[in-house]
Specification:
The complex is a heterodimer of chains A (299) and B (473).
Chain A lengths: L1 H16 L2 E5 L2 H11 L3 E5 L14 H8 L3 E4 L9 H7 L12 E3 L32 H18 L4 H25 L7 E4 L5 H7 L2 E5 L10 H13 L4 E5 L4 H11 L3 E4 L12 H18 L1
Parallel strand pairs in A: 1-2, 1-3, 3-4, 5-6, 5-7, 7-8
Helix pairs in contact in A: 2-5, 3-4, 5-6, 6-10, 8-9
Chain B lengths: L1 H88 L3 E13 L24 E4 L2 E8 L4 E9 L5 E10 L6 E9 L20 H6 L5 E10 L5 E9 L16 E12 L3 E12 L4 E6 L5 E21 L9 E20 L9 E22 L2 E11 L4 E2 H4 L9 H4 L5 E12 L2 E11 L7 E13 L7
Antiparallel strand pairs in B: 1-2, 1-3, 1-19, 3-4, 4-5, 5-6, 6-7, 7-8, 8-9, 9-10, 10-12, 11-12, 12-13, 13-14, 14-15, 14-16, 15-17, 17-18, 18-19
The chains are: A alpha/beta (299), B alpha+beta (473).
Chain lengths: 299, 473
């Protein structure tokens, strides 16, 4: 009888001790949650580095995962505008609605670049809130980590101290890592590059690179032959050191231009999982800096 | 002498020493005082300088702190301004869909109907030959508060009429997987039914949707959905409504006049494949659901059905995108199967025409089915090509009036044409961006009661202004 009562008690207590169930929209937030939550969190990452997080559909599997999430961590700034609202409203999960503590919008905690002065789709798919790809500046990661640690502590109050300790250790290690990357990346200052989409702006801003042009004629409009021909002409006058694209971008336009302009085409991991080396957030920046440095050495 | 001199010198020396000693003491006293004085002066000077330095240091620290504070405030303000702006832009989300077509039909679209099927009353897209404006759709959606969300969709028809397609509120905070909806909404039955026509992969509805539901089945009522807490997507839903539209008919009745249940199952198969399958049931009980036909001499008659209409739907959608990245290449296969059983009474009334038989009524029963399957392939960014095949089985309607000899069968031309209507379509579309699409479609339509083939060529544009559209699965 006592055993039975004990088992009942365990059943009752078990959900309280359960891990925080996290639905991360992008791999970088999944990786950050892993750094800050360690073994206190269970993470499902909705997209991979090979998928453009903007063009995802609200697949049944995403709805099923959102149904059981305690916390949804997304970039925001309209990056997931096409699918996240459906996932949230059809999940039947009150905990993760936009007004709840179970919804964490990472980009809302940092200053965004390229906030448009005017909004007109003739300029392409520009986001009213500014450029959403905030994670490629490690200083932003640090700021978001602070807020995420607070959120973990709020949602899982029993482990608040552990989250604070874990968060503090991460901040220290991350600060050292940033110093290391900044020292290594010093020669990259002023490096002129061409990017595929406006998704590298924070990296460019952080390292002081110069973005000459984009392969997309307008944000969200796939590269056209006409635009690439114009770019080729432009690069003859003002050469770039590299043509940079993310792992999920179509490789063909970058290759086409790289061959003709005789400039190396570089694939940056863009997020965790985008290259073999980018296994976590440290690897992401290690590899991004290393790949950019390879462009300066190639010349 | 020497000793004297020495003694004298010693005496003088000692005297001098004796004399000098107090002198020396006197001298050191004054010097010390002076030194003390100096030190005090220096100390004072240093004190004031140290104080000045300390003050400057404090000032500098305060300045640095306030600078930091200002910077932090500025950043916080910037973050605040940014998030405020994004909230403004999305509350409420307003979008407008603009559509237009150019159509070339070998047969007159005015006389179009589907052999063996009671007209669904819905609109056939596109409606007419030549240039025409298709429906413009205005969409307004927003959270009402933390508990509700609302959506309003009005279709402005080319005939200058406004039609409320959807106007509903949805719960946000029921939790436990439940979501409730109330108002006018597209029913959750089938796959295509919940999707607006501008988001279709072909210009028009599949024949089965036209024959069995008259387009999207929308009703005024309530819906409750429940999502299971499993890794596999399992969704169950039920609806009750007033039975506003075909296959129901509006009834002056308390309570619900139509009901539906549906279950959806879906998942990913690896990173590149995903699917959703569904099974739905719609029950309606129309009263005096009438339609126009002609008798054997071509005179107008009015037929009316009353009874029970039971519709079963099975649907399957499968999507493929390499590595789950649909931007360059992707493929979508979708199919739905319809099965309907209607039983009750059928009225026949030719009193407005030849008045040969007058108004009669007898039993009616029909088992009918239909299906379509379509595949759409995006072979390069912006370009998609697709094919679709439609097939219906009109079954053999049991018409009491014909069986008992009251009215000869050829007075029900629409119902007794025992045929299998079919249609084959192909389309090519180009989307310059996520917000615009141009489409060319060809269809070979063999669904008319007279058996004539209609060759249809349609050019279409679909443009979306304003708030970002939803990427439904």
């Amino acid at each position: 009888m006592n055993k039975f009562l004990f088992a009942l008690l365990l059943l009752y207590v078990a959900p309280v001790q359960a891990k925080l169930n996290i639905f991360a929209c992008e791999p970088e937030w999944g990786a950050l949650a892993q750094e800050l939550g360690a073994d206190r969190v269970d993470i499902y990452t909705a997209t991979t580095a090979l998928q453009n997080p903007h063009y995802i559909e609200a697949r049944p599997s995403l709805l099923a995962k959102a149904r059981r999430a305690d916390l949804v961590i997304c970039t925001g700034a309209e990056l997931e505008a096409g699918w996240l609202p459906i996932v949230l409203t059809q999940s039947g999960n009150a905990k993760i609605q936009a007004s709840s503590p179970g919804f964490f919008e990472a980009s809302s905690f940092v200053v965004k670049l390229e906030v448009p002065q005017s909004l007109d789709r003739a300029q392409g798919d520009v986001h009213a809130a500014g450029n959403p790809h905030v994670h490629l500046d490690p200083h932003n990661i640090a700021k978001i980590a602070t807020k995420l640690t607070e959120r973990f502590a709020q949602l899982d109050a029993a482990n608040a101290g552990a989250y604070q300790a874990q968060g503090g250790a991460f901040q220290e290690k991350w600060r050292d890592a940033i110093a290391g990357w900044e020292a290594r990346a010093a020669p990259l200052k002023g490096l002129p590059i061409v990017t595929y989409h406006k998704d590298m702006s924070y990296l460019i801003n952080w390292l002081g690179l110069i973005e000459l042009a984009n392969l997309e004629p307008k944000p969200g409009v796939p590269p056209t032959t006409g635009h690439l021909t114009d770019l080729l002409e432009q690069l003859e006058k003002k050469p770039a050191k590299a043509i940079v694209r993310s792992a999920y971008n179509n490789p063909k336009p970058a290759q086409w231009l790289a061959e003709r302009a005789r400039v190396p085409a570089i694939v940056l991991p863009f997020t965790v999982g985008g290259s073999e080396q980018a296994r976590n957030l440290y690897g992401l920046f290690d590899d991004s800096v290393a790949r950019l440095l390879s462009a300066t050495n190639a010349q | 002498m020497l000793s004297y001199a020495l003694a004298r010198a010693a005496l003088v020396g000692s005297a001098l020493c004796v004399l000098a000693a107090p002198l020396a003491v006197a001298a050191s006293d004054s010097e010390l005082a002076e030194i003390r004085n100096e030190i005090n002066k220096v100390r004072e000077a240093y004190q004031t300088r140290i104080e000045a330095l300390e003050k400057r240091l404090n000032d500098a620290e305060a300045k640095a702190q306030s600078a930091q504070k200002t910077a932090a405030q500025a950043e916080a303000a910037a973050v605040g301004v940014q998030s405020r702006r994004s909230q403004n832009s999305g509350n409420p989300a307003i979008s407008l869909i603009l559509q237009g077509t150019y159509a070339n039909f070998s047969e007159d679209p005015e006389t179009r109907s589907i052999a063996g099927f009671v007209p669904g009353g819905g609109e056939f897209f596109p409606g007419s030959r030549g240039f025409s404006l298709a429906e413009s759709e205005l969409n307004i959606a927003a959270s009402v508060d933390p508990y509700f969300r609302g959506l309003f969709t009005a279709a402005l028809t080319p005939e200058d009429e406004i039609e409320i397609e959807e106007a509903w509120i949805q719960s946000l905070s029921l939790g436990a997987g439940f979501t409730a909806k109330a108002g006018r909404f597209f029913s959750g039955i089938g796959y295509l039914n919940e999707i607006h026509q501008h988001a279709f992969d072909f210009v028009d509805f599949p024949l089965a949707y036209q024959a069995f539901l008259g387009g999207n089945y929308s009703d005024d009522g309530v819906q409750l959905r429940w999502l299971a807490p499993t890794d596999l997507f399992i969704e169950v839903g039920t609806e009750a409504g007033r039975g506003r539209a075909f296959p129901a008919s509006d009834r002056n009745k308390n309570g619900a006049a139509s009901g539906a249940v549906f279950v959806h199952v879906g998942d990913d198969l690896g990173i590149s494949h995903s699917y959703r399958a569904g099974l739905s049931y719609l029950h309606t009980a129309p009263r005096e659901r009438s339609f126009d036909d002609t008798d054997s001499l071509g005179n107008p008659v009015v037929n009316a059905f009353r009874g029970n209409s039971r519709l079963w739907l099975a649907d399957l959608v499968y999507k493929y995108a390499p590595d789950g990245n649909a931007q360059v290449k992707n493929f979508k296969l979708q199919g739905e199967y319809f099965w309907r059983h209607e039983s009750g009474e059928l009225g026949f009334d030719d009193s407005a025409g030849s008045a040969q038989f007058g108004a009669l009524r007898d039993a009616y029963a029909a088992r009918q089915s239909g299906w379509y399957v379509q595949g759409v392939y995006q072979f390069m960014p912006r370009w998609r090509a697709g094919v679709r095949y439609d097939r219906l089985d009109s079954g053999n309607a049991v018409i009491g009036l014909v069986q008992n000899g009251a009215v000869p069968g050829d007075n029900f031309p629409l119902l007794v044409t025992g045929k299998n209507p079919q249609r084959a379509s192909a389309m090519l579309d180009f989307s310059p961006s996520e917000f615009s699409r141009l489409r060319l479609q060809y269809a070979r339509d063999e669904s008319r009661p007279d058996g004539v083939t209609d060759d249809q060529i349609i050019l279409q544009y679909i443009m979306s202004l304003g708030a970002h559209g939803a990427h439904r699965f």
